Amino acid sequence: WDAGDAIHHLIFRMYDEADREITVNHTVAEKIKVNWTPKINRDHLVQGLLPNVTVPTSVKDVRYCQVSYQDDQVSLESAFTVKPHAGEPKLLKCTIKGSNTVRMGEEMDGEIDVAVTDQYGNQVESLKSSCVNLLKISGDDLNEEGLKVTWQAQTQTMCVKGIQFAPGT
């Protein structure tokens, strides 16, 4: 699931030890709990629907979701995890490596790594090397013809070198 999305229309069924489906009525629904939201629509539970799950906004977060039922004689539990992946490309995250200053007319010693991220800052890792052809770099007095953009397969980033600005007049 994309980071920040919501998972809708989660269905569930309960079965006894003989693998017979248990009918969820309002009495049974009152004893069902989930760990991802404090309020549950009991009418939805009777229809076999669980509450929506909000997917974490960071791909580093995994949400553990647990559904439980308990009465005087029976205790049932089921769980699943939600691991988000980066959403649609939205932003460029640029990191300067090496020197961050350059004299007009001279080439910058450092380089700039460019990562494509979703709206939450998660790096989009489904890009291909051909994406370097889609990156347009411009700036006042920037020598655009001297720029070298290369694909870094290991980090899924683009590296910009050859940054030089025309000397002032």
* pLDDT < 50 runs, ≥5 residues: none
State the major sheet.
Answer: 4 strands, antiparallel
Quaternary assembly: single chain
SSE sequence, one letter per element: EEEHEHEEEEEEE
Q: What is the SS-derived class?
A: mainly beta
In spatial order, strands of the major sheet run: 8-9-11-10
- Specify the overall morphology: rod-shaped
Mean pLDDT: 93
Distance between the termini: 53 Å
Strand tally, please? 11
Determine the strand fraction and express it as a percent band.
25-35%
**Radius of gyration in whole Å, from Cα?**
26 Å
Helix share bin: under 10%
Question: Helical element count?
Answer: 2
Walkthrough of the structure:
There is one protein chain. Helices cover 5% and strands 30% of the residues. It is mainly beta. It has a four-stranded antiparallel sheet with strand order 8-9-11-10, with no helix packed on it. The protein starts with 5 loop residues before the first strand and ends in an 8-residue tail after the last strand. 11% of the residues are buried.
Question: In a nutshell, what does this entry contain?
Answer:
By secondary structure, this protein is mainly beta. Helices cover 5% and strands 30% of the residues.
